[in-house]
Amino acid sequence: MSDIETGEMIENEVIEVSMTENEPEPSQDFSAPSLRSALEAILMVIDEPASIEILAQIVNTPIAEVEIELANLAFELEEKQSGFLLKQVAGGWRFYTNEECWPVVEKFVKEGQPAKLTQASLETLAVVAYKQPVSKGRISAIRGVNVDSVIRTLLNRGLIEEAGIEHESQSILYKTTNYFLERLGINELSQLPPVADYLPDMSALDSLIEDSDR
Questions:
Q1: What is the pLDDT of residues 26-41, one digit of tens each?
Q2: What is the domain extent for residue 120?
Q3: pLDDT tens-digit series, residues 118-158
Q4: Rounded Cα gap, residues 132 and 160, in angstroms
């Protein structure tokens, strides 16, 4: 082998090593088996639609890749007629129960769960009843605790429902349902007993709540 050929081989090896060393590391670093599983795990625990920007930031992946993965997941769930679907609503992504499955979900909510509510659920339901439409943040401010799980319980029981979006904070608002009135045996909310009889100085409480919302 000539010196020229040897030199070319050495040069090629140096170039290959150099290119390998300069290759960028993968951008994904989400501590999960895959991008799909990371997104599914996040979407399973959120209570409000998550924006594509937030999801991309959490999984440390370009927005375009996350958007493609979400679109593929949404399509696959719809194609196999899954019990839950992935939808883009209010500028974000979130899992929702398949509307075609609602009759069986409603039956489970009304007949398949224990009839009694916990004290935390009753207190939260009372706040919604008297302050509706009200955001989760405001409910938490009144009760002084996180109410995420309790809100899910009341939604699942059909006692409360979403009532739009708060203009300033973009938070989901909640209100009681007709089923709530039915369970209480009243026709309208005006038949609820005056809250002032049980919670004195409501004006002071409202002031504290308004301050916490700012």
A1: 445 567 889 999 999 9
A2: 113-213
A3: 888 888 998 999 989 999 888 988 888 888 889 988 998 88
A4: 10
129, part of any domain: yes
Question: CB count, 10 Å around CB of 141?
Answer: 20
The b-or-e profile of 169-202 (16+ CB within 10 A means b, else e) is eebbbbbbbebbbeeeeeeeeeeeeeeeeeeeee
By CB atoms closer than 10 A (0-12, 13-18, 19+), residue 105 is: middle
Tell whether 117 and 190 lie within a shared domain: yes
By C-alpha distance, which of 94, 76, 173 is closest to 133? 173
Report how far apart, in Å, the C-alpha atoms of 51 and of each of 54, 92, 163, 201 are. 5, 4, 20, 40
Task: Give yes or no: residues 141 and 92 share one domain.
Answer: no
Task: Answer yes or no: are the C-beta atoms of 200 and 206 closer than 8 Å.
Answer: no
CA distances for 45 relative to 72, 94, 152, 202, 204, angstroms:
20, 9, 11, 34, 35
Distance CA 154, CA 24 (A): 48
- Token pair 């150099």 is at which residue? 18
User: 123 and 206: one domain?
Assistant: yes
The dihedrals phi and psi of 87, each to the nearest 5 degrees, come to -130, 150
Domain check: are 92 and 145 in the same one?
no
Q: What is the CATH classification number for the domain harbouring 47?
A: 1.10.10.10
